[in-house]
Amino acid sequence: xxxxxxxxxxxxxxxxxxxxxxxxxxxxxxxxxxxxxxxxxxxxxxxxxxxxxxxxxxxxxxxxxxxxxxxxxxxxxxxxxxxxxxxxxxxxxxxxxxxxxxxxxxxxxxxxxxxxxxxxxxxxxxxxxxxxxxxxxxxxxxxxxxxxxxxxxxxxxxxxxxxxxxxxxxxxxxxxxxxxxxxxxxxxxxxxxxxxxxxxxxxxxxxxxxxxxxxxxxxxxxxxxxxxxxxxxxxxxxxxxxxxxxxxxxxxxxxxxxxxxxxxxxxxxxxxxxxxxxxxxxxxxxxxxxxxxxxxxxxxxxxxxxxxxxxxxxxxxxxxxxxxxxxxxxxxxxxxxxxxxxxxxxxxxxxxxxxxxxxxxxxxxxxxxxxxxxxxxxxxxxxxxxxxxxxxxxxxxxxxxxxxxxxxxxxxxxxxxxxxxxxxxxxxxxxxxxxxxxxxxxxxxxxxxxxxxxxxxxxxxxxxxxxxxxxxxxxxxxxxxxxxxxxxxxxxxxxxxxxx
Length: 500
Ligand code: 4AD
Ligand code: MG
Description:
Elements: H1 2-10, E1 15-30, E2 35-40, E3 48-52, H2 54-57, E4 65-74, E5 83-94, H3 110-113, H4 117-120, H5 124-147, E6 150-151, E7 157-158, E8 170-171, E9 196-198, H6 203-213, E10 216-223, E11 236-245, H7 250-268, H8 272-282, H9 286-289, H10 297-308, E12 314-316, H11 317-329, H12 346-357, E13 362-365, E14 388-393, E15 397-405, H13 409-418, H14 427-431, H15 452-459, E16 465-471, H16 472-480
Parallel strand pairs: 3-5, 6-10, 12-13
Antiparallel strand pairs: 1-2, 1-4, 2-3, 4-5, 7-9, 8-9, 10-11, 11-16, 13-14, 14-15, 15-16
Helix pairs in contact: 5-7, 5-8, 7-10, 8-10
The structure holds 4-amino-1,4-dioxobutan-2-aminium adenosine-5'-monophosphate and magnesium ion (MG).
């Protein structure tokens, strides 16, 4: 339907040869001598208006799936639509029991709709967001192809916790065969000999692949067992990750990100899907506008414009803290007092995004070492910070995290030893009489298997490299102006919820 509406808007022909439309009856109005049906198919908010005879319309009701044939004709001036379908043949394909269908035409809250994930994506706006998802992937794929990045498929089941935050889901056995898999002492035998984990990030594997084929990227499912009950966190989400070799400055990675997202925004800004999403925002009801995180059409088009332009601000963490402290002195109220040690809270990130970005995304760089994972290299010439960045956007806060990776074997070994990630000890730990850590106790309390293989990447032909991970569902939330990440993912999973 989107392409039919688009092509007829561009054509001056009075009518076209017989066409066929497949879709769902959005509304139907039956009069004595004539009937009108609005038909949609999820590609557009705007339906096709079909004109039927009373006989053709007799058995049709709202929600039915139908196949229509007819002439696509220009309407006389004064009608809401420019074209309508003069139906010659109507076939109902599937009946909708409108009285029991839980999706109703009246306002239904996001919370209620989340109880119906298998049906709610039929709502025209939700269907548009799925179209947008597919188009963003298409645009970014083109970008990477042009830039010579290789798309790869890193594993989902892993033996380590990349981020070291202990937020991993465990994969251990074949549940339906557990009883047969008990060993002599009654213990369930692990399918992979020891517990494995659903990936929290593909980064470590991408680092291996980047050293084989050059710059790589992936868009991959990612899992985090964090109990965060926020509109920005899911237990299962998609992360878009890139890893670049032979780069020695985080600015080179930030350049690629900025280029990728601004190219995508310019590509899609004028598309039918984005225009329809903007239209939905400009006609939203007072109930929709009152939903948590709801944005106006003006705010949403500002987001697209801000992303489409380049030269996004890049500020250092130290400057961010100073700015926040200064803002507090000037009267801005924060729930948490900003400080170098405590790190940036969501409210601080929101403030920084607006203050520095003015509608554009903002990079904050060079965070304190203690706040970041083991793999980041130090900011050249400095001791307290790492060569990393977060990309912040208004409302959504952190959209991307990335860094240069420590590629020197002894430097990364030292950090991993200090963080209890290796069996062998630092000379200081040995001098203090600490005993070597057995394999099964590695990273105790968190969850990580041996990362010896990761050290091989530094042993054999190590190169300066860096990369990033973008929360793909957060990006969609931002670009579609949806208040919660639970509503841009068709079947969302979060703490306590995985129902369909
Ligand atoms: O900042 P994070 O944890 O970075 C990494 O995992 C790196 N290893 C990525 C890399 O350098 N290859 O996660 C990256 C992004 C975040 O900025 C955020 O947008 C998103 O992933 N993210 C989530 N999105 C939805 N739900 C969650 N629970 C998320 N946790 C992180
Ligand atoms: Mg992060």
